[in-house]
Amino acid sequence: MPLLKPQEKIEYGEFKCKLPVDLITDIAAYAKAIDSDVNYVMEQAIKRLTTDKDFQTWKEKNPDRLAKPATESTKNKRGPKAKQSNQLKAVSAA
């Protein structure tokens, strides 16, 4: 029995990061093993991290430090060449 449930269809955002190649290979293989896409495997793995009680306490104490999804209005104010740093970019679900 796989550790992750089948994928639900929900609205997604985008967050770019770099990972070691061997980890990317394992993530892709796990996704094939459970007949899901890589994004779903990453989502479920990160959701497991968010159950950390210390992290939940930190989030409650630091709501102003959480990443906010980028919107068209924030993009226009920052200009076309502005870095997104920890901003999340909203994308439509496929």
The stretches of 5 or more residues where confidence is low (pLDDT under 50) are 71-76, 79-88, 90-94
Termini separation (Å)? 26 Å
- Specify the helix fraction band: 40-55%
Give me the side-by-side strand order of the main sheet: 1-3-2
Overall residue-averaged pLDDT value:
77
> What's the total helix number?
4
Series of H and E elements: EHHHEHE
Radius of gyration: 16 Å
| Total DSSP E strands | 3
Q: What structural class do the secondary elements suggest?
A: mainly alpha
Instruction: Name the overall outline.
Output: globular
The amount of beta strand, in percent, is 5-15%
Biggest sheet layout: 3 strands, mixed
Annotation keywords:
disordered C terminus; 44% helix; mainly alpha; 94 residues
Can you characterise this structure?
Strands 1-3-2 form a 3-stranded mixed β-sheet. The chain has a domain at 27-52. The chain is mostly helical. 44% of the residues lie in helices and 10% in strands. Helix 4 links the parallel strand 2 (69-70) and strand 3 (88-91). The chain contains 4 helices and 3 strands; from the N terminus they run E-H-H-H-E-H-E. The chain is globular, with a radius of gyration of 16 Å.
SSE layout and pairing:
Layout: E1 12-14, H1 21-33, H2 38-49, H3 53-61, E2 69-70, H4 72-78, E3 88-91
Helix pairs in contact: 1-2
Can you give me a brief rundown of this structure?
With 94 residues, the chain is mainly alpha-helical. Helices cover 44% and strands 10% of the residues. The chain has helices at residues 21-33, 38-49, 53-61, 72-78; strands at 12-14, 69-70, 88-91.
